[in-house]
Amino acid sequence: MDERVAHVLAEGPPPLNGFLQRVLDFVQALRRAGVGPTQSEAIDAVRTLPHLDLLERTQLREALAAVTVTSQTQRRAFDDLFELYFPARKAAADDTPPVTDEPADETDPDDYLQDLLDELMEGGDEAVRRMARLAVDQFGRVEGRDGGVSYFQYKVFRAVDLQQLLRDMLGRAVDDEGQLTPLQERLYRDEFEARLRTFQQEVEAEIRRRAAAQRGLDQVADRMTRPPVEELDFFHLSAEDQAQLRAQIRPLARKLATRVSVKRRHGKDGRLDVRRTVRQSLATGGVPFDPKFKPRRPHKPELFLICDVSGSVASFARFTLMFVHALQEQFSKVRSFAFIDTLDEVTALFEQGDAADAMRRMMSEAELVWLDGHSDYGHSLERFHAEYARDLTPRSTVIILGDARNNYRQANAWVLQDLARRARRLYWLNPEPIQFWDTGDSISSSYARFVEDMVEVRNLKQLAAFVERIA
After folding, report:
1. How far, in Å, CA of 465 to CA of 457, rounded?
2. N or C: which end of the chain has fewer CB within 10 A?
3. Per-residue pLDDT tens for 348-362?
4. pLDDT tens, 353-391?
């Protein structure tokens, strides 16, 4: 054990040694997951324990989070690991049965679902937790060829249809209350969905606990921890992930804008000022030679975004547009263009307010489909060149967003060659992994030879690093 931590423990009578070790193991798991509490934060976590009621799980969770979590994006990983290292338990007399290979007593599935519905209508957390354990026992069990037993979440939710349960709960509410107003129905739906999420989370936690009992806490912790939201792949976002990512865009944009402004203020001096240098050296005969530089006058670039918003890359384009327009003050001008198989300018939509609303309007109001609604980079680039290329200046930076999958259509790569000649910079952001470029109908290399750089951008963190580079 670290000497500093040992010193802290020596300051007073510690709680139970086993519990202390669990806290230290939990801190180490956080570090491996990238949450990264420092040594002083680990010491603070230990120091909080004598001031807590260790049987109050919520109090313990929030106290440890307060001293180890430094950003909101880390909270999800913290909560997942907390559920694993400090699982919810009711009392010693009614605790979770040990994990064994012995099959539990079979329960009729219809009887179980009826009991579960009753408990969900009551809304008691302990009862829901007990029903989650029973669901894992009854439906999640898989016996391996080696005689071992594993438990799987997908098997549980194949047997327990959450959407059907929601409909049954709403039906019971109607039976109890009579005809519901739209407001009452919405309130009931929100409450019942929250209870079902609690049940789902308890099932997940129970399966993780059983896996940890079989394979070890640390091994399961290292495999189960989800990355921070800004590192989530744009291609694999759930509805919850998308909502969290949208919430992170503006704080991240503010942070990045501050860094960019500081870099501009403290950047290197400009070109050598020959006249000032010679004048300064006259007094010493040129020894020592002290060069003088002209003041650096950094300018804000003009930005032209050309975005593929077809189904395959829609999430990537959506968050890129939101992020760049949240940073709009860092550019002298931002113009946005969207396309599927033809192209239209959508700048005005993003100047009127909420970016999420602008995305919805863009898909319904902009002219993005010309022929069949499948990506056509060649036609879209040709239209951009015909209508907007004359607006590019030596201060313009052009960024194309897309996977370069052109459905075996004409590439018209000559457009990029001409845009590169007109603009200061030309980049391509590709959300596909590099190993998939030039496979199937991808023509990445046909375009990459005319751009300054084709960059793999799969998450918000990579996108922020690229925008900082060009801003």
Report:
1. 9
2. N
3. 888 766 767 787 888
4. 676 778 788 888 889 888 888 899 999 999 999 999 999
419: its two tokens: 């845009």
Residues 6+ apart with CB under 8 A from 61: 79, 82, 86
Supply the pTM of this predicted model.
Answer: 0.58
- CB distance 300 to 260 below 8 Å: no
State the first-to-last Cα distance of the chain, in angstroms, to the nearest integer.
Answer: 46
* Six-digit token string for 253: 């944009």
**205-244: b or e for each residue (b if 16 or more CB lie within 10 Å)?**
bbbbbbbbeeeebeebbeebbeebbbebebeebeeebbeb
DSSP symbol at 300 = P
**Which residue carries 């000649």 as its tokens?**
421
Measure the CA–CA gap between 421 and 100, rounded to whole angstroms: 70
Condensed to tens digits (0 to 9), the pLDDT of residues 144-167 reads 655 566 777 778 888 888 888 888
Q: 3-state class of 400 per DSSP?
A: strand
Structure tokens at 353: 């307010």
Closest CA to 139 of 118, 161, 123, 165: 161
Handedness of CA 117, 118, 121, 125 (dihedral sign): negative
Task: Name the residue with tokens 């200061």.
Answer: 424
Cβ proximity of 195 and 162 under 8 Å: no
Would the pLDDT of 214 be above 80? no
Is residue 305 within 8 Å of 337, Cβ to Cβ?
A: yes
CB 136 within 8 A of CB 104: no
